[in-house]
Design goal:
Blueprint (H helix, E strand, L loop, with lengths): L9 H6 L7 E5 L5 H8 L3 E6 L2 H4 L7 E5 L20 E7 L7 H6 L1 E12 L20 H7 L4 E11 L5 E10 L7 H4 L1
Parallel strand pairs: 1-2, 1-4, 2-3, 4-5
Antiparallel strand pairs: 5-7, 6-7
Length: 189
């Protein structure tokens, strides 16, 4: 793909073109590898991370950055909460898991919008961090979280071992909230 960022996840690269044009959320974005990919595909991006230093590297008029610790958000931060219902044409999350956010995350996607999510699963401790069960998905857990919310269609789901970019146990999903039932074959295979 011509628009790939050098270190973007192959999973995100594979499905990013399915996100309808519009505002896209890159949650727990780190240094913004996926924000850059999404901008190259024509999206405006809200890049959210708790690390202000990582956000400083994102200099692009189409990328709005917001430093926010989603796990520590209290009443005084409620006005900054980026996950408003139907706010984003797409949401991308990689290498991050905070289960209490999942319902708000799914609700933040517009009808016809796309969720691309990839993070670590049980068994990852044999390869390194994270190894804390609080940060590892159980078997099929990511799929169950999406399917328990009415109106989502799963485009692709994987749960298991990957060898690159480094050995890990992961789960990843691409799903569309309502919208067209047809997915281009060249993307879904």
């Amino acid at each position: 793909m011509a628009h790939s960022s050098p270190d973007a996840s192959p999973w995100v690269i594979r499905f990013a073109s399915l996100i309808p044009k519009g505002r896209t959320l890159d949650l727990a974005c780190g240094s913004g590898r996926h924000s850059r990919l999404l901008v190259a595909l024509g999206h405006s991006v809200l890049a959210v991370d708790r690390d202000a230093v990582a956000l400083e590297s994102l200099f692009d008029a189409r990328i709005e950055t917001r430093q926010f610790d989603l796990e520590q958000a209290g009443a005084d931060q409620a006005f900054d909460w980026p996950l408003l219902p139907s706010a984003f044409s797409g949401v991308v999350v990689t290498n991050y898991l905070y289960r209490p956010l999942m319902d708000a995350l799914l609700a933040s996607v517009v009808p016809g919008g796309v969720l691309i999510y990839e993070t670590f699963a049980q068994g990852n401790g044999q390869f390194g961090k994270p190894s804390n069960p609080d940060f590892l998905l159980g078997p099929g857990e990511l799929l169950e979280m999406v399917l328990r919310t009415q109106g989502w269609r799963v485009i692709a789901f994987e749960d298991g071992y990957v060898s690159a970019p480094k050995p890990a146990m992961i789960q990843r999903i691409c799903a569309r909230r309502g919208g067209p039932e047809v997915v281009p074959v060249d993307v879904a295979i």
